[in-house]
Amino acid sequence: MFFTKRFDKFKNLSNLTIFLTQSTTHLINKINYFYPMKVLPFTIPVPHDRTIIVLEEELPHFYTYLHRHAEAQITWVQKGTGTLLAGNSMHAFRDGEIYLLGANLPHLFKSDPAYFQPGSKKNVKTVTIFFNPSGKLAALFGLPEMKTVKTFVEQMQSGYKVPDSNYADIARQIEAVQQANGAEQLSLFIDLLNALGGNENLQPLTTGHSPLSMTDPEGMRIANVYNYIMHNYSSPLTLENAAMQAHLTPTAFCRYFKKHTRHTFVHFVNKVRVNEACKLLVNGSGNSIATVAYSCGFNSITNFNYVFKGITGMSPRDYVNSYSNTVE
Questions:
Q1: Are the C-beta atoms of residues 160 and 105 closer than 8 Å to each other?
Q2: Domain count, the chain
Q3: According to the model, what pLDDT value does residue 44 have?
Q4: How far apart are CA 3 and CA 25, in angstroms?
């Protein structure tokens, strides 16, 4: 009935296909499309007459589970704040940032807790370009003239963030791709990839290692643990409870987690907590350092200061002062 009432607004099959694609994506965000906590292939419904798909979405919050899909993506966060988990890396994100994520890279844009508060009127808005390097574009990328673009697409597998200094130019190019159709859209998309590939200031989301490949069962286990940590970091987290998420003994879990994430469990939890603490320290709420520490799961100020400095290279107080000096 929902679709039947709205069919009359479409003038051709192409527009209808795009509508169905967007509606499917919205529906997936509203229901548990995946079996909870699994990192399974997410199928982006691509219309038969298109090589790339551009989706503009406005939702109460981002999709809440770690997932992956065959398409690489360029995501422009127009509105929204939270934590991006990409592969085994973690980054705070905010309004006006652009991220590149490779094909089949497990990822999660996790909205801040404020988005889930009862009565919250916050929302997120994004424009994302999806494209499958191994699909219809493979022949195009295989041309000699496209060697540089193909190399860049392969390099973006680990993910990049567009530097703030280039944000406005890249955002304009994404908007141009969004508004175009047919051959013009494909041409503008290639121009966008050229511009990104020629940008020497792109910020890698991971350093020193390429993302680990995982089978679906391995991904499901790690996703269980990731989601458990991301949703419970403010509470006491024990090795035993984390191991239960992966259906392993604590000893086996320690080896498994380190092998597949290149982090110890404790270090990963500390990174999540410090990442959240960084956002709370500078969000203008005026919370004291002690309040932030306890709200992020630390059980003592001394431990918080020690862990915070070990991860960020500065004390919480210095971090706040550094941020204040930057924005003044």
A1: no
A2: 2
A3: 57
A4: 14
How far is 188 from 164, CA to CA, in rounded Å?
Answer: 22
pLDDT tens-digit profile of 63-98?
A: 877 788 889 999 999 999 998 988 878 888 999 999
**For residue 62, what are its two tokens?**
């981002």
**Dihedrals φ, ψ of 56, to 5°?**
-105, 125
pLDDT tens track for 238-289: 999 999 988 899 999 999 888 877 889 999 999 999 988 998 888 777 789 9
Q: What is the CATH number of the domain that holds 32?
A: 2.60.120.280
**E strand or H helix at 319:** helix 316-327
Handedness of CA 14, 17, 21, 27 (dihedral sign): positive
Prediction pTM value = 0.72
Pair (197, 313) in one structural domain: no
In this prediction, residue 32 carries a pLDDT of 34
Parent domain of 163: 4-204
DSSP-assigned states of every residue in 253-307: HHHHHHHHHSS-HHHHHHHHHHHHHHHHHTSSS---HHHHHHHTT-S-HHHHHHH
Strand order in the sheet with 107-111: 89-93, 82-86, 107-111
What angle, 0 to 180 degrees and rounded to 10, lies between the N-to-C axes of helices 182-197 and 167-179? 160
Which two three-digit tokens encode residue 67? Answer: 């997932």
Q: How far apart are CA 257 and CA 250, in angstroms?
A: 10
- Report the CATH number that the domain containing residue 294 is assigned in CATH: 1.10.10.60
CA–chain centroid gap for 134, Å, is 21
Catalogue the long-range contacts made by 20-24 (C-beta closer than 8 Å, 24 or more residues apart): 20/45, 21/45, 21/46, 21/47, 21/53, 21/55, 22/55, 22/56, 22/57
Say if 179 falls within a structural domain.
Answer: yes
Does any domain span residue 215? no
Decide which of 204, 223, 245 is a domain's last residue: 204
